[in-house]
Every structure is written in C-alpha cells, then in structure tokens.
Inverse folding.
DNA sequence: GCGTTCGCTTGATCCACGTCAACCACGGTA
DNA sequence: TACCGTGGTTGACGTGGATCAAGCGAACGC
C-alpha cells in the first residue's frame, strides 16, 4: 500500500519490486507517459501482486468484476465457452498487457483468463483507477487508448477469421507474436509457443490438425523451423507474402 | 452550443431537437444515468448534428480522429479493408449506438463507417468528452462500460466466426438484430434488413450465396418468412434451437 | 413505358478444411 | 529402463461451404 517503508527492509524490497515506477514494462503498460510524481500515485493504487500457476484461472466467466490486471510476467489465454462446450480462444496475452477489460460492462467477467505458464500479475482495483484517472489526465487518456486498441485488435481477428484461409491465418498469427516478442526485447526470430496446437486452432478458427499441417508446410517451404513449441522464423517476407494471396 | 436561446424561436427549436436531454434514445446512448443538471452539460458539448446520406462515409480508415459519433437515427456498417481488396464488415450499428471508438487508440480511424440508409449523427468531440467525464463520474463510468461492451460484443463475433456453422451464424445474427430492434421499441418479429446479402455474408464470414441458401432453408423450416429484405420471425425458438446443434 | 442494373435465388460442381485414425516424440514417474 | 499420458504429426477420406453459372424480380434512369 505505502510506497516506501524504510523501517522494514524486507517489506520495502517487496514493495519496490511491485512498484510500477520500477517496472521495466511501464512503457508497455498502464504507466505509459506518466511523470515521476504521477507514477508514485499509481504505485499506491496497484497494491496487490499475485502469482498464478500454469493452468490456473486468473478469473472465470460469471465472476464479479472489481479489478483489471496487468501482466508482470508470464503468458495467458482468454476464452469464451458455449453451453455445448465449444471453446473460442479470444486472445493470448503477454507481459505488459491488460486483462479483464471485458468485465467493466456488466460488472461480471464474460470470459476466462488462464495462465499458460507460471505468471505474475498486478491487480488494479477498477474504482480506484477511475478515481485516479479523473485526476491524472495522461492516465485517463492512456487507459482510453488501451481499451480502443483492444477493439482495433478484435477487428483484426475478425478480419482473420472472416476472410483469411488457414495458412494466411497462421502466418498472421506468427508475425503478430514475433512483433510482440520484439517489443519486449526478445528475439523476433526465435521463440517458444506457450499454447498448444489446439489453442492456436481455437484462436484461429481451425482444427489442430490443420494448424499442424500448416506448420509443416511452412517448414517445407523454408519459412520457419519448427520443433514442437520451439519456432524459428527463417523468412519473414515469405510469411508476409502468404498473406496477400487471397482467394 | 448554448442550450437555451429564448430570443430566437427558430434556433431554439433546432437546439431543443438536438439536445441529449430531449432525445428519446438517451437511455440507450451516452446520457444514460445522468441527472438533469449533468444532461444539460452534455448538451453543451454535443454541438454538432450531421446528416449522412445512404452510401456516404461518416469517416474513413486513415482519417484523423477527433470525435466519436452517436447515431440519432439511421443505420450504419463499419468495415476494414485488406490491401488486396477483401472486406470484413465488423459491425452494424443502429440508433443510440456509438461509432468511432476505434480511432482513440492511434488518433486515426482504423475502419470505415458507412450509412446504409439516410442517417443523422451527433458528433461528440473526444477531448471534451474526456474533460467532462473527469467531472461527471456517471458519465465516465458509463463511457467505460460502453467501450467494454464493445469488446464483449467483439468476443461474441469471434465465437461466431471461429466455431459456428453457417446456419448457426445466421440464426445468431437474426436473433441479435431482433433483440436490438426490440430495445428500440420496434417489433421483435418483423423488420427490414438495411444491408445486402453480401454485407451480411462479410460480417458472418460467409459468401452471399450461402447466406441466401440459409434464408431459404429457414423459410422452408417455417422459422421465418423472407421477402427480399423484409423479414418476419415466425418461430424464435426454432432459431434458438439451431444454435446448440454444434458439430 | 422500357431497358438496364443490382441484388437475390438456385443448381451443379469443386476443394479447403474437418474428421477419423494410426503412430510418434517427449516428459514425468515408478 | 520401462511405462504412460499428453501433445503433435501424418495419411485417407468426407463434407460444408465456396465457386461458377444461369435466371429472375425490383428499382431506377431515361
């Protein structure tokens, strides 16, 4: 809660680690663009940090909503389930991205958020975020941008699901992942997938066998090297070119 | 601009017509939940009202963003275009709904908004909305809810595109339209489609022939009566039942 | 009033992806 | 080291929806 606790080294260290002002994701996350003084106020608000183990839910559809979550480390998927059991993965989220925006509308979460690897999140009580964003214009505006960006991203997914063929979808998916890893300082050409073929398929509106075949095809063409979840991109332009081959 | 102009009957009438406080859509639109006094302040902000003719753009992808738009009357579609010309319709919007939220993220619109019939919109300068929502908590919260609702809606579309078969998609589409017409005081069972089969198809990730065949099928089954764009729903439960028949 | 255009319907055919099934690779456990 | 379970790959085959094509009715311009 308090930002500085000089009388207790133990707590102080923990708090420093939790602070937005000290987080190397602040340029990707909610604190973007805030002054030092404003950052301090945000620190006060982001009180809770939580570990989520691989496979565990951060929240479930139907649960009450009272906070949004910033991913500090790790990897998540969000999905919605139909009554008959069909699953649609609506997104994969990585460090610095926000989870839970869907819950604002009805005060209840409308999707599930599940950790795909051991993760850490910062809980941001939503009512306090609204208070603070009335006072810090930059925060208000940035939050609006983040929500809007989510809407734009969703439009991209609709485009993908509505008009692209299987290989285009997978190429778009890989390029998107690569770009997001790059933004976080990781290699753009080599990474581990945290999700299964089935989860990729659900996200892309394809069956896992189709995803697997597309991976193999890309490998044959020399665009990528696949070994289970380990991906190396060998020819970015090859993948990009795939995406303009309509019909 | 000014809410009351008693010295000029002509202008006064126009202004009264434009005012949110006087708009019968206020329970569906941004003014939801505001007090009389707060409504008056919103009125001051929503200065511009514009007519958009059928077929005309309200805004285009790439254009600078500075306002969001409330639909006062009429009907719109939003779409995104791929370089190679493929179109994805991302939504159909009717009276009381907001357009332009996609533009906040980059300060540029990322999709096109096109009137499907002669329409009227209220322009809401976004920077002024941010100022006002710092002062009126209800407005702030409601705006956040509206953005969040859009995200939830998008998830529903992903579900539809990713996991449903053609007839399920069309059934979901018709039920959604029916429900939204009902909320606006129109018949839930009888309405005119403002969009072509091709636009429906683009939204649903199907070709126009498939949409047409599904309409015919529904008619054969006695679920609906179709005559071009005129739709009568004869058996809502029949349509609903369709949506749980996975595989 | 008449031709033209646009949107819609319907049929025949095709193919991308789904389905079903067998097998394999890896990691964890005994 | 053997065993098992989960996830991934690959092949053979089936099918839902795309494609191609023809015809038709409503709306519009002249």
């Amino acid at each position: 809660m308090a930002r500085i606790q000089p009388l207790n080294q133990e707590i102080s260290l923990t708090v420093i680690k939790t602070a937005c002002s000290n987080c190397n994701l602040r340029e990707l996350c909610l604190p973007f663009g805030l002054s030092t003084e404003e950052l301090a106020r945000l620190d006060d608000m982001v009180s809770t940090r939580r570990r989520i183990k691989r496979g565990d839910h951060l929240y479930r559809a139907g649960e009450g909503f009272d906070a949004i979550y910033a991913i500090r480390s790790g990897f998540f998927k969000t999905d919605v389930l139909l009554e008959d059991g069909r699953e649609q993965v609506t997104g994969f989220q990585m460090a610095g991205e926000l989870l839970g925006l869907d819950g604002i509308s009805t005060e209840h979460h409308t999707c599930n958020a599940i950790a795909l690897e051991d993760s850490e999140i910062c809980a941001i009580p939503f009512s306090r975020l609204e208070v603070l964003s009335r006072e810090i214009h930059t925060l208000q505006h940035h939050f609006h941008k983040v929500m809007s960006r989510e809407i734009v991203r969703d439009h991209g997914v609709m485009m993908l699901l509505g008009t692209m063929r299987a290989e285009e979808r997978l190429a778009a998916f890989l390029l998107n992942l690569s770009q997001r890893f790059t933004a976080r300082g990781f290699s753009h050409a080599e990474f581990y997938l945290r999700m299964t073929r089935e989860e990729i398929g659900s996200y892309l509106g394809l069956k896992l066998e189709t995803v697997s075949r597309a991976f193999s095809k890309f490998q044959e063409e020399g665009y990528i090297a696949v070994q289970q979840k380990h991906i190396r991109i060998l020819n970015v332009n090859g993948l990009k070119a795939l995406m303009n081959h309509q019909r």
Summary: The domain at 9-138 of chain B is CATH 2.60.120.10 (Jelly Rolls). The first strand of chain B starts at residue 48 and ends at 52. Confidence is low (pLDDT under 50) at residues 1-16 of chain B.
